[in-house]
Backbone:
């Protein structure tokens, strides 16, 4: 009886893990198609995928303070600028306490991210080449002083689109991912994407700009 119970628990946990992984890649794919607009045309987009996101910001992702029961005017101004004036999202943050707490938790830590499986993102319109974070940054040398890094990246990989994804964080019917795209010396940005599941379907609720070059 105990053996059967343990087997049931093991199978249940494996199924839960597989379902979570499936959802993770569903959300990554939404970012690719809707935020980055790749893989949506008849031509093939070639992408360099950083296998495992490494936090270069020392967890400095908070987009507003958490100690107060209300959101400050400076935080509202920041979010207005960095969400493209997403008034619906900002009004929910102001009015819905639990929503605000959930969003804060979803934007506060993206460390310990998993290795991304490129084969689960590939399609007829998306061609991925995976590299490690160490390999990517090696093109730039110490203190980013190596000459012509992007020329060498393009020569080796045939593209200058470099994408990285953090782990997916969940809180009820909300989720978040940090992603970065690097595409040249003055080309690239990093954003936190907030997702919401409504009627069983995940969709992008908003995205918050973290940096831009």
Residues:
């Amino acid at each position: 009886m105990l053996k059967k119970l343990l087997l049931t628990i093991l199978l249940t946990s494996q199924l839960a893990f597989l379902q979570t992984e499936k959802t993770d890649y569903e959300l990554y794919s939404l970012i690719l198609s809707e935020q980055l607009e790749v893989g949506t045309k008849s031509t093939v987009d070639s992408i360099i995928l950083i296998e495992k996101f490494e936090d270069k910001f020392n967890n400095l992702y908070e987009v507003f303070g958490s100690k107060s029961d209300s959101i400050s005017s400076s935080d509202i101004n920041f979010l207005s600028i960095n969400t493209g004036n997403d008034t619906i999202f900002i009004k929910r943050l102001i009015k819905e306490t639990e929503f605000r707490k959930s969003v804060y938790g979803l934007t506060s830590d993206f460390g310990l991210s998993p290795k991304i499986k490129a084969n689960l993102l590939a399609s007829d319109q998306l061609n991925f080449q995976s590299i490690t974070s160490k390999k990517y940054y090696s093109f730039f040398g110490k203190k980013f002083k190596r000459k012509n890094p992007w020329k060498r990246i393009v020569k080796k990989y045939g593209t200058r689109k470099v994408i990285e994804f953090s782990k997916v964080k969940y809180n009820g019917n909300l989720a978040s991912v940090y992603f970065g795209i690097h595409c040249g010396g003055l080309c690239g940005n990093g954003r936190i994407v907030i997702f919401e599941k409504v009627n069983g379907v995940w969709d992008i609720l908003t995205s918050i700009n973290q940096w831009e070059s």
